[in-house]
Amino acid sequence: MTSRQRFLDAISGVELDRPPVWLMRQAGRYLPEYREVRGGTPFMEFCRDVDRAVEVSLQPWRRFGTDAVIFFSDILVPLEAMGLHVSIGDGGPSIGNPVRTGADVARLHGFDPERETGFVPEILRRLCREVDGKAALLGFAGAPWTTASYAIEGASGRSFQVAKTLALREPALVHDLLARIADATALYLRAQIDAGVDAVQLFDTWAGELSPSDYAAFAAPYQARVFSQLPAAIPRILFVNGAAPHLEAMAASGAGVLSLDWRVDLAEARRRVPGMVLQGNVDPCTLLGPLPAITGAVARCLAATGGVRHIVNLGHGVLKETPPDAVAAFVAAAKGGAA
Amino acid sequence: MTSRQRFLDAISGVELDRPPVWLMRQAGRYLPEYREVRGGTPFMEFCRDVDRAVEVSLQPWRRFGTDAVIFFSDILVPLEAMGLHVSIGDGGPSIGNPVRTGADVARLHGFDPERETGFVPEILRRLCREVDGKAALLGFAGAPWTTASYAIEGASGRSFQVAKTLALREPALVHDLLARIADATALYLRAQIDAGVDAVQLFDTWAGELSPSDYAAFAAPYQARVFSQLPAAIPRILFVNGAAPHLEAMAASGAGVLSLDWRVDLAEARRRVPGMVLQGNVDPCTLLGPLPAITGAVARCLAATGGVRHIVNLGHGVLKETPPDAVAAFVAAAKGGAA
């Protein structure tokens, strides 16, 4: 059985000898072969370099035998295509012309993903040929609230107070922004689907910072607006960091798979949203610990779900300090063997 | 009825015409009268200045008529008394000699709160006379996990990976550190109780970053260890930022009041832990918005609890950008009147 089939079977609820496994941000700085390919290239420029983006996307698959390959990119690529000046440094993303007024929103433009972000479908078509059905190929995008909060904040903050304050003071403006981002994101994901991905993941990383009523107003409707514009057959994964209060809302988004952070117990998640496939949810910090801690954490996840309708993953992206051997141990534990 | 009686009645479950209200970090930089008194004094030095700490503790009570007065201080005062070099700047706390090894833990010493942090009981005795039973006087301390994570990290991080990694690699060392901090914290709170506080709040601000199994191992037992060493009659409030996954565990800590962040709905919290008094939980960012948004957020909280066994508060501390008028509107909304 190929990894691709295993991944799709897990989503369909087929019983498997073991669940599939991959890791969010599995391609990245923690891998020496990534650092070698990347060199000193600025991040957004690197995302546009098809050859090298394909190469680093494949590195973790080759090294660890993950069941899925996600293309190397950043969730802010669509914002750049909409007219914002995005740069990503060690301190996180920063945007030179953040969105604060109605004029700023009006200046944002939709984009043709094949033309203005043509490197993305091109990377995916190349990956599709390289992976050749052996592993699941994943597309992704940022969800509207998360993308909009970057657009508004203009820099990484801890409390998202600029974005939240704008939502309080000018809700119509923020809803307009979210709608534009949602529609652009749907087109962007459709281009990825046309290029051959097997499933798409929507990252609503910062929606977990919202109160339940703000989540219902500013996050949930726009997740649904993206998903509703995708072909019915494509599997959809929704990630929220800080998902515990929002499981029921996430289950109503149109996603079939909920990707959960480590703060919520998977057994509780299964009880609360029994119809959902669950992805996750080991604390990325666990991979900085000794190997038995990694094996133990994977075993706890598997015990919580019985390995059924479960895609083993971290609860957030791989940390840059992670030893590659820890990732190998994580994948091996999920596969039920030794590293 | 005095504010003090109202506060204690809310905790006892007595039916009231309106619930009591106060705000975490109600004394602080957002108030011009605080900035005037503080001047350029370094933070930890300011905490030790009895006259000025008393004055800034009283400022929000005088200005807004909150039902509780919490003494002005910092949760890292006990760590300093245990031998760490603490300084607090705009970027958060930093510790010159963080705890990383068994020798570092062994070097920490218990302390006599009346002698080594005598300014704290002195501030409280003075506040007790000033407040004179008109408002509830609150003591507080950091909970062991939160305090230990500062001690280990040595600086503010976002992911607490140094503390979590040490907990994975050297659990015995971290348990030893947590036990020492818990016992010192219990003595520190007993000195506050002897000085006349009406209730104590334990801030486990960062426990919400732990997985449920790590919370059970590293946070919960040490919250209980602190509470179990306090006189039975003193009301105990437990705050966790990111409380949603942990409500049931929090209810088993020995606290009678759970102070909740804004990410969880109070009606859901009431269903899950029906025996608990709830404190909170408006998003502090709401106070950066227009006045109707503030009134609406308070009304939603009150609707969720019916105002019964509820202490109105924010879900975390007042942000330094908050306009004082917004705090006035918040207090007025909780009291059921106009600002």
Descriptive notes:
The structure is a homodimer of 339-residue chains. Chain A contains 16 helices and nine strands. Chain A is an alpha/beta fold and 339 residues long. In chain A, the strands form two sheets. The first copy, chain A, has a seven-stranded parallel sheet. Chain A has a two-stranded antiparallel ribbon with strand order 2-3. In chain A, α9 (144-153) crosses α10 (161-169). The longest helix of chain A is centred in the middle third of the chain and has 24 residues, at 171-194. The two termini of chain A are 21 Å apart.
Tally of helical segments of chain A = 16
Unreliable spans of chain A: none
Strand arrangement within the widest β-sheet of chain A reads 1-4-5-6-7-8-9
Q: Tell me about the largest β-sheet of chain A.
A: 7 strands, parallel
Helix content of chain A: 40-55%
